Amino acid sequence: MCGILGYFGQFDRAALAVGLHLISHRGPDDSGTMFDDAASVGLGHRRLSILDLSPLGHQPMSSPDGKVWLIFNGEIYNFPELRADLEAKGHRFRGHSDTEVLLHLYLERGEAMLPMLNGIFAFGIWDQRSQQMFVARDAMGVKPLYYAASSRGFAFASEIKGLLPLIPEARELDAVALHRYLSFLWCPGEGTPLKAVRKVLPGEALILRAGKIERKWIWYQTPVFRGIQADLDEKSAIEGTVSHLRSAVKRQLIADVPVGAFLSGGLDSSAVVAFAREQNPNLRCFTIEAKGGHDVGETDDLPYARRVAKHLDVALDIVEIDSSKMAGDLERMIVQLDEPLADPAPLNVLYISKLARESGMKVLLSGAGGDDLFTGYRRHVAVNYESLWSWIPSSLRRALESATIGMDMRNASKRRFAKLMRGAGLDGDARLANYFVWAREPDLFQLYSQDFRAEIRQANALDPMLDFLRPLPSSVGKLDRMLALEQEFFLADHNLPYTDKMSMAVGLEARVPFLDLELVEFAARIPMPMKQRGREGKWILKKAMEPFLPSDVIYRPKSGFTAPLRRWMRHDLKPLLGDLLSARSITQRGLFDASAIQRLIEANDSGRVDASYTLLSLLGIEIWCRNYVDRSSTVFPM
């Protein structure tokens, strides 16, 4: 719900209006601004009306005495309970929005309100009484929030493009962040492509005074950091998984507008639909059919989505997209994403969201987060079996890794085995973090220009993850540590940003029941052998869903949104590669070595290496730079 933009310091009023226009897609229903010129504060809001569609939900929203102002993006799912408690304490409400509840909760509890919230949010609160700004992001990082802190003050926004009019001078690239985008295909931690722009981390809050950060703290830590014991037996784990997911879905169906669901045919989205169907027999679901086939080794989801829809008796709307159109929309995708995430999957979210919006939906339930709570990725299988070979001396493991470098990357099985062996010589947390790495550092350094290489010589792409895990005692197991990384980084820096950005691009909100805080806390109490049982990921969730879904859907092969990227790089995207990664373009940008990039393209074409995603990363960085650095205007092609 919505887009927010604000500043505290010496910024231009008119620039806030421009920035607000650039994120207008996030809130097509209404807009508003508030200025406190005496304090150098400006707040802007674009509204997507979901709860309380009346003007009483308008933002920025003020307290009854006009001294506290709130801008808020998201949903507070437990707002009915919070409202009842506040009314018992004497608070009176004009409307029935969760925004008003959030504002009154701040008036009652101040920053101590954060642990009371179960929802997805990013907000800014200007308190004239104390002359302080309070900024916070939700526990799991579902809603994005960026900021720029400079000598002029502090500015924050739902999207980077909204910030740029306020900080037009901030165009210096962050070389370390770019190195991480190339290493992982996304950037873990607070970095963005611009040195001046940072991310507010999941579960992080800030207090500002006089336009400067006075205090910054993490108000929510994933359960593994709080020593929550995995103490459930199998029966309690199965019954609790059903009851908590059912309750989460029920909570997240609350809206004054139509709510539908993504349905890929995978276990997670199918489980969400099964419980949503209990509440709304007329539920509409949406999926995609990508014409033009898949890369070798990839699974087609559509037959499973149809199977689930028929089993649950729900309507299934299918958007048909030609793969060549998807390739042609990559530039638009990267511009909309605000960050050069090298994954074509966001396009699927965009197309499905557009169809749903055109069909009258304003909200879709998503299955995102299931793998990150219950396991389910191939790397979880690998970690589970590491004890079988971790006793091998690291020198021999490094030799195994070297032996995979020359494998034929056109074979999907060999490609996956080579990825499994990458970093085989590492130990401990470095080994775990390395599972997220897509491109080896020695390979990347060959692509960098001398200047760029010098800038990042002391940087380690793994540092944000290693720093995050460092406080955990060694008694915490490998898979628990891995799931902590999934939740803190892979979700918050990859899956959730693209789900939010591409759905909000068409004025539609994606909700994620698996990340309901009550379910997150409960899942932490499930022993790991009930999540990853041998090669079987999400074992407990699969057992829990057996009464509700067909067995062939529950135990189907793991897949995700896919696109024939490897074929695109050799055919559909060839003209784009020729333009964006031409010797002239590469030389002018100064980040990479033009001859090394050309050799990489040729090696990828011949099949000697599998560099399609690295090439997409390089394309993404150049597209991003042309739109966010080179442009003198603040017009973004949507």
Tell me the CATH superfamily of the largest domain. Answer: HUPs
Quote the CATH topology of the largest domain. Answer: Rossmann fold
Percent helix range? 40-55%
In CATH, the architecture of the largest domain is 3-Layer(aba) Sandwich
**Overall mean pLDDT:** 93
Low-confidence stretches: none
Q: What this model shows, in words?
A:
There is one protein chain. α5 runs antiparallel to α29 (612-628) and α11 packs across α20. The protein is 43% helix and 16% strand. The chain has four domains: 3-220, Glutamine Phosphoribosylpyrophosphate, subunit 1, domain 1 (4-Layer Sandwich), CATH 3.60.20; 224-375 and 486-554, HUPs (Rossmann fold, 3-Layer(aba) Sandwich); 378-442 and 455-482, no CATH class; 565-628, no CATH class. The chain is an alpha+beta fold. The chain contains 29 helices and 17 strands. It starts with a strand and ends in a 10-residue tail after the last helix. It has a six-stranded antiparallel β-sheet with strand order 2-3-1-9-8-10. It has a six-stranded antiparallel β-sheet with strand order 4-5-6-7-11-12, covered by helices on one side.
